[in-house]
Amino acid sequence: MDDAAIRSLIDRYIAAFNEGSIAGMLACVSDDVVLDVNQGGRRVGREKFETYLIHMARCYRERMTDVVLLTAGDGLHAAAEYTVSGTYLETDDNLPPANGQTYSVRAGSFFEVENGRISRMTTYYDLDDWIEQVAR
């Protein structure tokens, strides 16, 4: 894929994320997608990715803004830095109790693309900062 096609794919993924569209996000990933989330383990395959998205939608309502998207020029890789703003809806495993707290953290994701779909996504954010914001 050329850089414009990769940008378009990731822009579609981010738009689906911001709409809360699980179907839209799934349409952007490969059947054997690999998702790595800092301090959250690895999930391999569309089914595990979908289970993750359903869990996240139950616990959080989030939006990505201030997105800076960079492509590697190799037709395979991209990276994005952004702000995730959200509302903590339901208590997540081993995290502080949820009661509708709002938060905003900087985050970054690295993408690999194969055959027109996202095949790997690795996401990093400052979990300690997030916990501090929702523990208030």
How would you characterize the overall build of this protein?
The protein has 136 residues and is an alpha+beta fold. The protein has a single domain, classed as Nuclear Transport Factor 2, Chain: A, CATH 3.10.450.50. 32% of the residues lie in helices and 43% in strands. It is built from four helices and six strands, in the order ααββαββββα. The protein has a six-stranded mixed β-sheet with strand order 2-1-6-5-4-3. A hairpin with a 5-residue loop joins strand 3 and strand 4. The longest helix has 17 residues.
Query: The biggest beta sheet, please?
Result: 6 strands, mixed
How big a fraction of the residues is strand? Answer: 35-45%
User: What's the tally of helices?
Assistant: 4
C-alpha termini separation: 45 Å
- Rounded mean pLDDT is 96
Q: Level of helix content?
A: 25-40%
* Helix-strand topology string: HHEEHEEEEH
Shape: globular
| CATH topology assignment | Nuclear Transport Factor 2, Chain: A
Query: What is the level-2 CATH architecture name?
Result: Roll
Strand order of the largest sheet: 2-1-6-5-4-3
CATH class: Alpha Beta
Q: What class do helices, strands and sheet pairing give?
A: alpha+beta
Q: Into how many domains do the coordinates divide?
A: 1
